[in-house]
Amino acid sequence: MDPVIVLVLSLSCLLLLSLWRQSSERRKLPPGPTPLPIIGNFLQIDVKNIQQSFTNFSKAYGPVFTLYFGTQPTVVLHGYEAVKEALIDHGEEFAGRGRLPAVDKLLNGLGIVFSNGNMWKDMRRFSLMTLRNLGMGKRTIEDRVQEEAQCLVEELRKTNGSPCDPTFILGCAPCNVVCSIVFQNRFDYKDQEFLNLMEKLDENTKILGSPWLQVCNTFPALLDYCPGSHNTFFKNYSYMKSYFSKKIKEHGESLDVTNPRDFIDYYLIKRRQESCSQQLKYTIENLIVIVTDLFGAGIESTSTTLRYALLLLLKHPHVTAKVQEEIDRVVGRHCSPCMQDRSQMPYTDAMVHEVQRFIDLLPNSIPHAVTCDIKFRNYLIPKGTTIVTSLSSVLHDSKEFPNPEMFDPGHFLDGNGNFKKSDYFMPFSTGKRSCAGEGLARMELFLFLTTILQNFKLKSLVHPKDIDTTPVVNGFASVPLPFQLCFIPA
User: Is 435 annotated as contributing to ligand binding?
Assistant: First the structure.
Protein backbone atom coordinates (compact mmCIF):
# COMPACT_ATOMS: atom_id res chain seq x y z
CA MET A 1 0.00 0.00 0.00
CA ASP A 2 1.17 3.53 -0.80
CA PRO A 3 2.96 5.00 2.28
CA VAL A 4 1.04 8.25 1.85
CA ILE A 5 -2.26 6.38 2.04
CA VAL A 6 -1.07 4.51 5.13
CA LEU A 7 -0.11 7.83 6.75
CA VAL A 8 -3.46 9.42 5.91
CA LEU A 9 -5.38 6.39 7.21
CA SER A 10 -3.32 6.35 10.41
CA LEU A 11 -3.89 10.04 11.05
CA SER A 12 -7.58 9.64 10.32
CA CYS A 13 -7.82 6.79 12.84
CA LEU A 14 -6.02 8.86 15.48
CA LEU A 15 -8.36 11.76 14.78
CA LEU A 16 -11.46 9.60 15.10
CA LEU A 17 -10.10 7.98 18.27
CA SER A 18 -9.45 11.43 19.75
CA LEU A 19 -12.96 12.60 18.87
CA TRP A 20 -14.55 9.45 20.33
CA ARG A 21 -12.53 9.70 23.52
CA GLN A 22 -13.36 13.38 24.02
CA SER A 23 -17.04 12.76 23.33
CA SER A 24 -17.15 9.92 25.86
CA GLU A 25 -15.40 11.99 28.54
CA ARG A 26 -17.47 15.10 27.96
CA ARG A 27 -20.75 13.33 28.71
CA LYS A 28 -19.65 12.92 32.36
CA LEU A 29 -17.61 16.08 32.92
CA PRO A 30 -18.96 19.60 33.54
CA PRO A 31 -20.08 21.42 30.36
CA GLY A 32 -17.77 23.56 28.27
CA PRO A 33 -17.02 24.71 24.74
CA THR A 34 -16.60 22.00 22.12
CA PRO A 35 -12.90 21.16 21.75
CA LEU A 36 -11.11 20.63 18.45
CA PRO A 37 -9.18 17.38 17.94
CA ILE A 38 -5.58 17.41 19.20
CA ILE A 39 -5.46 21.14 20.12
CA GLY A 40 -8.60 21.23 22.29
CA ASN A 41 -9.92 24.72 23.15
CA PHE A 42 -6.71 26.66 22.54
CA LEU A 43 -8.20 28.78 19.76
CA GLN A 44 -11.17 29.77 21.95
CA ILE A 45 -9.00 31.23 24.72
CA ASP A 46 -7.53 34.72 24.61
CA VAL A 47 -3.98 34.04 25.82
CA LYS A 48 -3.51 37.78 26.49
CA ASN A 49 -6.52 37.84 28.82
CA ILE A 50 -7.19 34.33 30.08
CA GLN A 51 -9.21 35.60 33.04
CA GLN A 52 -11.69 37.38 30.78
CA SER A 53 -12.01 34.18 28.74
CA PHE A 54 -12.75 32.26 31.94
CA THR A 55 -15.33 34.86 32.96
CA ASN A 56 -17.02 34.56 29.57
CA PHE A 57 -17.06 30.76 29.78
CA SER A 58 -18.52 30.90 33.31
CA LYS A 59 -21.38 33.07 32.04
CA ALA A 60 -22.12 30.54 29.31
CA TYR A 61 -21.55 27.27 31.20
CA GLY A 62 -21.72 28.11 34.91
CA PRO A 63 -19.07 28.34 37.66
CA VAL A 64 -17.74 24.82 36.98
CA PHE A 65 -16.79 24.12 33.36
CA THR A 66 -14.41 21.98 31.32
CA LEU A 67 -11.72 23.11 28.89
CA TYR A 68 -9.35 20.96 26.86
CA PHE A 69 -5.70 21.93 26.69
CA GLY A 70 -4.61 19.59 23.95
CA THR A 71 -6.37 16.27 24.48
CA GLN A 72 -6.49 16.49 28.27
CA PRO A 73 -9.61 17.83 30.04
CA THR A 74 -9.21 20.53 32.69
CA VAL A 75 -12.05 21.48 35.04
CA VAL A 76 -12.10 25.20 35.89
CA LEU A 77 -13.60 26.49 39.15
CA HIS A 78 -14.81 30.08 38.88
CA GLY A 79 -16.06 32.17 41.81
CA TYR A 80 -15.81 31.92 45.58
CA GLU A 81 -18.53 29.33 46.13
CA ALA A 82 -17.10 26.81 43.66
CA VAL A 83 -13.50 27.30 44.86
CA LYS A 84 -14.49 27.02 48.53
CA GLU A 85 -16.67 23.96 47.96
CA ALA A 86 -13.83 22.15 46.21
CA LEU A 87 -10.72 23.19 48.13
CA ILE A 88 -12.22 23.42 51.63
CA ASP A 89 -15.43 21.33 51.77
CA HIS A 90 -13.86 18.58 49.62
CA GLY A 91 -10.26 19.43 50.48
CA GLU A 92 -8.92 15.87 50.53
CA GLU A 93 -10.38 14.96 47.15
CA PHE A 94 -9.02 18.13 45.48
CA ALA A 95 -5.59 18.01 47.18
CA GLY A 96 -3.72 16.46 44.26
CA ARG A 97 -1.19 18.39 42.20
CA GLY A 98 -1.90 18.73 38.50
CA ARG A 99 0.78 17.50 36.13
CA LEU A 100 3.37 19.92 34.72
CA PRO A 101 5.56 17.61 32.59
CA ALA A 102 8.46 20.08 32.33
CA VAL A 103 8.72 20.14 36.13
CA ASP A 104 7.84 16.48 36.69
CA LYS A 105 10.71 15.49 34.39
CA LEU A 106 13.17 17.07 36.83
CA LEU A 107 11.64 16.49 40.26
CA ASN A 108 10.39 12.88 39.94
CA GLY A 109 7.49 13.44 42.32
CA LEU A 110 9.71 14.70 45.16
CA GLY A 111 9.56 17.83 47.31
CA ILE A 112 6.49 19.75 48.47
CA VAL A 113 5.02 21.90 45.70
CA PHE A 114 4.77 19.30 42.92
CA SER A 115 4.54 16.04 44.87
CA ASN A 116 1.44 13.97 45.63
CA GLY A 117 0.06 11.45 48.10
CA ASN A 118 1.96 10.46 51.23
CA MET A 119 5.18 12.04 49.94
CA TRP A 120 3.48 15.44 49.77
CA LYS A 121 1.75 15.04 53.15
CA ASP A 122 4.94 13.99 54.95
CA MET A 123 7.19 16.64 53.40
CA ARG A 124 4.66 19.44 53.93
CA ARG A 125 4.14 18.38 57.57
CA PHE A 126 7.90 18.23 58.17
CA SER A 127 8.50 21.61 56.52
CA LEU A 128 5.76 23.39 58.46
CA MET A 129 7.00 21.89 61.72
CA THR A 130 10.59 22.89 60.95
CA LEU A 131 9.63 26.46 60.09
CA ARG A 132 7.78 26.64 63.42
CA ASN A 133 10.84 25.27 65.23
CA LEU A 134 13.03 27.89 63.57
CA GLY A 135 10.52 30.54 64.60
CA MET A 136 10.82 29.47 68.23
CA GLY A 137 14.61 29.13 68.33
CA LYS A 138 17.27 31.40 69.74
CA ARG A 139 17.19 33.45 66.56
CA THR A 140 13.65 33.59 65.25
CA ILE A 141 12.54 34.00 61.67
CA GLU A 142 11.23 37.46 62.57
CA ASP A 143 14.74 38.42 63.73
CA ARG A 144 16.09 37.31 60.36
CA VAL A 145 13.48 39.31 58.43
CA GLN A 146 14.09 42.42 60.56
CA GLU A 147 17.84 42.13 60.01
CA GLU A 148 17.31 41.82 56.27
CA ALA A 149 14.94 44.78 56.28
CA GLN A 150 17.73 46.94 57.72
CA CYS A 151 20.19 45.62 55.12
CA LEU A 152 17.62 46.47 52.45
CA VAL A 153 17.36 50.03 53.78
CA GLU A 154 21.15 50.40 53.68
CA GLU A 155 21.22 49.26 50.03
CA LEU A 156 18.48 51.73 49.15
CA ARG A 157 20.44 54.54 50.88
CA LYS A 158 23.30 53.86 48.46
CA THR A 159 21.10 55.05 45.60
CA ASN A 160 21.46 58.57 47.09
CA GLY A 161 17.96 59.51 46.06
CA SER A 162 18.75 58.94 42.37
CA PRO A 163 16.25 57.21 40.04
CA CYS A 164 16.57 53.43 40.22
CA ASP A 165 14.77 50.27 39.17
CA PRO A 166 14.06 48.45 42.48
CA THR A 167 13.74 44.97 40.93
CA PHE A 168 17.19 43.63 41.83
CA ILE A 169 17.34 44.96 45.40
CA LEU A 170 13.80 43.78 46.16
CA GLY A 171 14.75 40.32 44.87
CA CYS A 172 17.85 40.12 47.08
CA ALA A 173 15.97 40.70 50.34
CA PRO A 174 13.53 37.73 50.28
CA CYS A 175 16.25 35.55 48.73
CA ASN A 176 18.51 36.30 51.69
CA VAL A 177 15.71 35.49 54.15
CA VAL A 178 15.36 32.05 52.55
CA CYS A 179 19.17 31.65 52.57
CA SER A 180 19.20 32.49 56.28
CA ILE A 181 16.49 29.91 57.02
CA VAL A 182 17.94 27.16 54.82
CA PHE A 183 21.72 27.78 55.09
CA GLN A 184 21.85 29.77 58.37
CA ASN A 185 23.77 32.63 56.74
CA ARG A 186 22.76 35.54 54.54
CA PHE A 187 24.94 36.82 51.69
CA ASP A 188 26.24 40.23 50.70
CA TYR A 189 24.24 41.63 47.78
CA LYS A 190 27.43 41.60 45.67
CA ASP A 191 28.46 38.01 46.53
CA GLN A 192 29.00 36.24 43.20
CA GLU A 193 27.60 32.86 44.33
CA PHE A 194 24.50 34.65 45.61
CA LEU A 195 24.14 36.57 42.33
CA ASN A 196 24.52 33.39 40.26
CA LEU A 197 21.86 31.62 42.30
CA MET A 198 19.46 34.57 41.95
CA GLU A 199 20.09 34.72 38.20
CA LYS A 200 19.24 31.02 37.70
CA LEU A 201 16.13 31.24 39.89
CA ASP A 202 14.90 34.36 38.09
CA GLU A 203 15.51 32.92 34.64
CA ASN A 204 13.75 29.65 35.48
CA THR A 205 10.74 31.51 36.89
CA LYS A 206 10.42 33.46 33.63
CA ILE A 207 10.84 30.34 31.49
CA LEU A 208 8.28 28.40 33.55
CA GLY A 209 5.69 31.09 32.83
CA SER A 210 6.55 31.46 29.14
CA PRO A 211 4.13 30.47 26.33
CA TRP A 212 6.63 27.88 25.09
CA LEU A 213 6.63 26.01 28.42
CA GLN A 214 2.83 26.04 28.41
CA VAL A 215 2.92 24.38 24.99
CA CYS A 216 5.51 21.86 26.21
CA ASN A 217 3.37 21.01 29.24
CA THR A 218 0.45 20.36 26.90
CA PHE A 219 2.50 18.33 24.42
CA PRO A 220 5.29 16.73 26.55
CA ALA A 221 6.99 15.01 23.62
CA LEU A 222 8.39 18.41 22.66
CA LEU A 223 10.57 18.34 25.79
CA ASP A 224 12.61 15.44 24.42
CA TYR A 225 12.73 16.19 20.71
CA CYS A 226 12.69 19.97 20.24
CA PRO A 227 15.16 22.75 20.98
CA GLY A 228 13.89 25.63 23.08
CA SER A 229 14.05 27.46 26.41
CA HIS A 230 13.11 24.26 28.28
CA ASN A 231 16.71 23.13 27.81
CA THR A 232 17.92 26.28 29.58
CA PHE A 233 15.39 25.51 32.32
CA PHE A 234 16.88 22.02 32.77
CA LYS A 235 20.46 23.36 32.67
CA ASN A 236 19.72 25.98 35.34
CA TYR A 237 18.15 23.34 37.57
CA SER A 238 21.31 21.22 37.25
CA TYR A 239 23.36 24.21 38.43
CA MET A 240 21.07 24.78 41.43
CA LYS A 241 21.05 21.08 42.26
CA SER A 242 24.85 21.03 42.30
CA TYR A 243 24.99 24.18 44.46
CA PHE A 244 22.48 22.87 46.99
CA SER A 245 24.25 19.47 47.08
CA LYS A 246 27.49 21.20 48.06
CA LYS A 247 25.76 23.12 50.86
CA ILE A 248 24.10 19.94 52.16
CA LYS A 249 27.44 18.09 52.16
CA GLU A 250 29.04 20.93 54.17
CA HIS A 251 26.16 20.73 56.67
CA GLY A 252 26.57 16.98 57.03
CA GLU A 253 30.25 17.38 57.88
CA SER A 254 29.60 19.98 60.62
CA LEU A 255 26.23 18.69 61.91
CA ASP A 256 25.56 18.85 65.66
CA VAL A 257 22.35 16.91 66.34
CA THR A 258 21.89 18.70 69.66
CA ASN A 259 22.01 22.16 68.11
CA PRO A 260 20.30 22.40 64.68
CA ARG A 261 21.18 25.68 62.96
CA ASP A 262 18.77 25.78 60.02
CA PHE A 263 16.34 23.87 57.80
CA ILE A 264 19.00 21.58 56.33
CA ASP A 265 20.20 20.56 59.79
CA TYR A 266 16.66 19.68 60.90
CA TYR A 267 16.21 17.51 57.80
CA LEU A 268 19.54 15.70 58.25
CA ILE A 269 18.68 15.01 61.91
CA LYS A 270 15.27 13.67 60.89
CA ARG A 271 16.98 11.50 58.28
CA ARG A 272 19.24 9.96 60.93
CA GLN A 273 16.31 9.31 63.27
CA GLU A 274 14.15 7.49 60.74
CA SER A 275 14.23 3.72 60.35
CA CYS A 276 15.77 2.20 57.23
CA SER A 277 12.40 1.70 55.53
CA GLN A 278 11.39 5.31 56.14
CA GLN A 279 14.69 6.74 55.00
CA LEU A 280 13.48 6.20 51.44
CA LYS A 281 11.47 9.40 51.93
CA TYR A 282 14.15 11.43 53.68
CA THR A 283 16.72 11.14 50.93
CA ILE A 284 19.30 13.75 49.96
CA GLU A 285 17.59 13.96 46.55
CA ASN A 286 14.34 14.86 48.27
CA LEU A 287 16.06 17.49 50.40
CA ILE A 288 17.51 19.12 47.28
CA VAL A 289 14.02 19.36 45.74
CA ILE A 290 12.51 20.75 48.97
CA VAL A 291 15.23 23.42 49.14
CA THR A 292 14.53 24.23 45.47
CA ASP A 293 10.83 24.55 46.35
CA LEU A 294 11.60 26.91 49.24
CA PHE A 295 13.66 29.16 47.00
CA GLY A 296 11.32 28.97 44.02
CA ALA A 297 8.16 29.69 46.03
CA GLY A 298 9.70 32.04 48.59
CA ILE A 299 11.47 34.61 46.46
CA GLU A 300 9.78 35.60 43.21
CA SER A 301 6.27 35.95 44.63
CA THR A 302 7.41 38.13 47.56
CA SER A 303 9.77 40.30 45.51
CA THR A 304 7.15 40.86 42.79
CA THR A 305 4.53 41.80 45.40
CA LEU A 306 6.96 44.27 47.01
CA ARG A 307 7.75 45.82 43.64
CA TYR A 308 4.08 46.09 42.74
CA ALA A 309 3.32 47.60 46.17
CA LEU A 310 5.81 50.42 45.56
CA LEU A 311 4.27 51.11 42.16
CA LEU A 312 0.77 51.30 43.68
CA LEU A 313 1.99 53.56 46.49
CA LEU A 314 3.49 55.90 43.87
CA LYS A 315 0.18 55.86 42.01
CA HIS A 316 -1.80 56.60 45.18
CA PRO A 317 0.23 59.10 47.27
CA HIS A 318 -2.71 59.70 49.64
CA VAL A 319 -2.49 56.01 50.67
CA THR A 320 1.27 56.33 51.18
CA ALA A 321 0.76 59.40 53.38
CA LYS A 322 -1.78 57.59 55.59
CA VAL A 323 0.52 54.58 55.99
CA GLN A 324 3.52 56.75 56.88
CA GLU A 325 1.46 58.71 59.40
CA GLU A 326 0.45 55.43 61.05
CA ILE A 327 4.07 54.22 61.10
CA ASP A 328 5.23 57.47 62.72
CA ARG A 329 2.47 57.28 65.33
CA VAL A 330 2.81 53.57 66.25
CA VAL A 331 6.46 52.68 65.56
CA GLY A 332 8.24 56.02 65.45
CA ARG A 333 11.45 56.77 63.57
CA HIS A 334 14.00 55.03 65.77
CA CYS A 335 12.51 51.55 66.44
CA SER A 336 12.46 48.72 63.92
CA PRO A 337 8.91 47.69 62.98
CA CYS A 338 7.90 44.29 64.39
CA MET A 339 4.93 41.98 63.92
CA GLN A 340 3.44 43.05 67.25
CA ASP A 341 2.94 46.51 65.74
CA ARG A 342 0.57 45.17 63.07
CA SER A 343 -2.44 44.90 65.40
CA GLN A 344 -2.14 48.65 66.09
CA MET A 345 -1.74 49.52 62.40
CA PRO A 346 -5.04 48.61 60.71
CA TYR A 347 -4.58 50.92 57.72
CA THR A 348 -1.09 49.58 56.94
CA ASP A 349 -2.36 46.01 57.36
CA ALA A 350 -5.27 46.80 55.04
CA MET A 351 -2.88 48.32 52.49
CA VAL A 352 -0.73 45.18 52.38
CA HIS A 353 -3.82 42.99 51.96
CA GLU A 354 -5.20 45.27 49.25
CA VAL A 355 -1.92 45.12 47.32
CA GLN A 356 -2.15 41.32 47.27
CA ARG A 357 -5.82 41.37 46.32
CA PHE A 358 -5.44 44.00 43.63
CA ILE A 359 -2.37 42.60 41.85
CA ASP A 360 -3.79 39.06 41.74
CA LEU A 361 -0.26 37.63 41.53
CA LEU A 362 -1.18 34.03 40.64
CA PRO A 363 -4.52 34.37 38.83
CA ASN A 364 -5.07 30.61 38.57
CA SER A 365 -2.73 29.34 41.28
CA ILE A 366 -0.84 26.12 40.47
CA PRO A 367 -3.01 23.36 38.96
CA HIS A 368 -4.67 20.90 41.33
CA ALA A 369 -5.86 17.38 40.54
CA VAL A 370 -8.55 15.19 42.07
CA THR A 371 -7.18 12.27 44.08
CA CYS A 372 -10.12 9.95 43.35
CA ASP A 373 -13.26 9.76 41.23
CA ILE A 374 -15.60 12.35 42.71
CA LYS A 375 -19.15 13.47 42.10
CA PHE A 376 -19.04 17.25 42.28
CA ARG A 377 -22.19 19.29 41.65
CA ASN A 378 -23.77 16.32 39.87
CA TYR A 379 -20.79 15.86 37.54
CA LEU A 380 -18.37 12.93 37.66
CA ILE A 381 -14.76 14.08 37.69
CA PRO A 382 -12.38 11.12 37.17
CA LYS A 383 -9.31 10.60 39.36
CA GLY A 384 -6.29 12.54 38.11
CA THR A 385 -8.29 15.21 36.26
CA THR A 386 -6.51 18.59 36.34
CA ILE A 387 -8.34 21.32 38.29
CA VAL A 388 -7.73 25.04 37.74
CA THR A 389 -8.98 27.43 40.42
CA SER A 390 -9.62 30.99 39.25
CA LEU A 391 -8.35 32.99 42.21
CA SER A 392 -8.98 36.15 40.16
CA SER A 393 -12.70 35.51 40.24
CA VAL A 394 -12.55 35.40 44.06
CA LEU A 395 -10.17 38.32 44.69
CA HIS A 396 -12.11 40.54 42.26
CA ASP A 397 -15.61 39.55 43.36
CA SER A 398 -17.67 42.77 43.22
CA LYS A 399 -20.08 41.63 45.95
CA GLU A 400 -17.27 41.27 48.49
CA PHE A 401 -15.05 44.05 47.18
CA PRO A 402 -17.05 46.98 45.73
CA ASN A 403 -15.29 48.41 42.66
CA PRO A 404 -12.77 45.54 42.64
CA GLU A 405 -10.72 47.09 39.81
CA MET A 406 -9.86 50.04 42.07
CA PHE A 407 -6.96 49.96 44.54
CA ASP A 408 -8.59 50.79 47.87
CA PRO A 409 -7.35 49.68 51.34
CA GLY A 410 -10.91 50.38 52.49
CA HIS A 411 -11.80 46.95 51.12
CA PHE A 412 -10.24 45.59 54.33
CA LEU A 413 -11.52 48.21 56.81
CA ASP A 414 -14.84 48.41 58.63
CA GLY A 415 -16.84 51.58 59.27
CA ASN A 416 -14.73 52.37 62.35
CA GLY A 417 -11.40 52.04 60.54
CA ASN A 418 -10.60 48.66 62.10
CA PHE A 419 -9.04 45.89 60.03
CA LYS A 420 -11.67 43.60 58.51
CA LYS A 421 -10.88 40.01 57.50
CA SER A 422 -12.40 38.46 54.38
CA ASP A 423 -12.89 34.81 53.49
CA TYR A 424 -12.40 35.90 49.87
CA PHE A 425 -8.77 36.83 50.52
CA MET A 426 -7.01 33.92 48.79
CA PRO A 427 -3.74 35.17 47.24
CA PHE A 428 -2.01 32.07 48.68
CA SER A 429 -4.87 29.83 47.53
CA THR A 430 -6.80 27.97 50.24
CA GLY A 431 -7.36 24.49 51.64
CA LYS A 432 -4.81 21.73 51.99
CA ARG A 433 -2.65 22.95 49.09
CA SER A 434 -2.42 26.56 50.24
CA CYS A 435 1.10 27.99 50.26
CA ALA A 436 3.16 26.45 53.08
CA GLY A 437 5.18 29.65 53.35
CA GLU A 438 2.18 31.97 53.71
CA GLY A 439 3.11 33.06 57.24
CA LEU A 440 6.67 33.92 56.22
CA ALA A 441 5.53 35.81 53.10
CA ARG A 442 3.02 37.90 55.05
CA MET A 443 5.67 38.72 57.64
CA GLU A 444 8.16 39.79 54.96
CA LEU A 445 5.64 41.98 53.14
CA PHE A 446 4.63 43.81 56.33
CA LEU A 447 8.14 44.28 57.74
CA PHE A 448 9.88 45.17 54.46
CA LEU A 449 7.22 47.68 53.39
CA THR A 450 6.90 49.37 56.79
CA THR A 451 10.69 49.61 57.16
CA ILE A 452 11.05 51.15 53.68
CA LEU A 453 8.26 53.66 54.32
CA GLN A 454 9.66 54.47 57.78
CA ASN A 455 13.00 55.48 56.24
CA PHE A 456 12.14 56.92 52.82
CA LYS A 457 9.77 59.10 50.92
CA LEU A 458 8.90 57.60 47.54
CA LYS A 459 9.29 59.95 44.59
CA SER A 460 7.87 59.11 41.18
CA LEU A 461 9.54 60.20 37.95
CA VAL A 462 6.12 60.90 36.38
CA HIS A 463 2.82 62.31 37.59
CA PRO A 464 0.75 59.72 39.51
CA LYS A 465 -2.05 59.83 36.92
CA ASP A 466 0.48 58.73 34.26
CA ILE A 467 1.64 55.67 36.21
CA ASP A 468 0.46 52.46 34.54
CA THR A 469 -0.37 49.70 37.04
CA THR A 470 -1.66 47.29 34.38
CA PRO A 471 -0.02 43.89 34.92
CA VAL A 472 2.02 42.00 32.37
CA VAL A 473 0.62 38.47 32.57
CA ASN A 474 2.84 35.49 31.79
CA GLY A 475 1.77 31.86 32.02
CA PHE A 476 1.58 31.88 35.83
CA ALA A 477 1.97 35.32 37.35
CA SER A 478 0.94 38.95 36.98
CA VAL A 479 3.96 41.26 37.15
CA PRO A 480 4.21 45.07 36.92
CA LEU A 481 5.72 46.94 34.01
CA PRO A 482 9.34 48.05 34.62
CA PHE A 483 9.54 51.38 36.41
CA GLN A 484 11.95 53.64 38.29
CA LEU A 485 11.56 55.72 41.43
CA CYS A 486 13.66 57.71 43.89
CA PHE A 487 14.08 56.71 47.54
CA ILE A 488 14.44 60.05 49.38
CA PRO A 489 15.72 59.62 52.97
CA ALA A 490 13.01 60.70 55.42
Answer: yes
